[in-house]
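# nightly structure sweep
# worker-07 picked up a monomer target from the shared queue
# config: single-sequence mode, recycle default, output format = structure tokens
# input follows
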Amino acid sequence: MEYIKSRVRDVVDFPKKGIVFKDLTTVFKDARALHIIGWDLSQLYRDKGITKVVGIESRGFIGGSILAFELGAGFVPVRKPGKLPADTLKASYDKEYGKDTIEIHRDAITENDIVVLHDDVLATGGTMAAAYELVKRMNPKKIYINFIIELSALNGRAVLPAEAEVTSLIKY
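# output follows
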């Protein structure tokens, strides 16, 4: 993980003053780093029977798609309002620098699915908590939560459901 950490770029005052944004685009453009992330993510879930990986817009699409491919699972996007073409479920939430809403297709998950929710960074946890609530409404067998990076000082795990297994590849 030190190789991955060495590729993460800190962007000061983004998206607003006082935030130090952990930018993974510098990791994703590095072929070796991307391969390591794909491999390490897949090893966390290889034997758990995952049928769907849910990626959160937009950087969660990258790791989530790789994870779905590696596991032979389907990929489901969680998007900002108005971006999905069919009937959706929606949830609003507070995050560290404002309020937002996300949506998922109403028919994306079934009761037979075992799901991994994936996003690039766990900060305050609002986005993932909302995504979890959306997926939980569809009654899958099991829901796991995963991040590439966790910003431990922001205590985002505290807002995530206790019944979900939460994993992060890197903790700051």
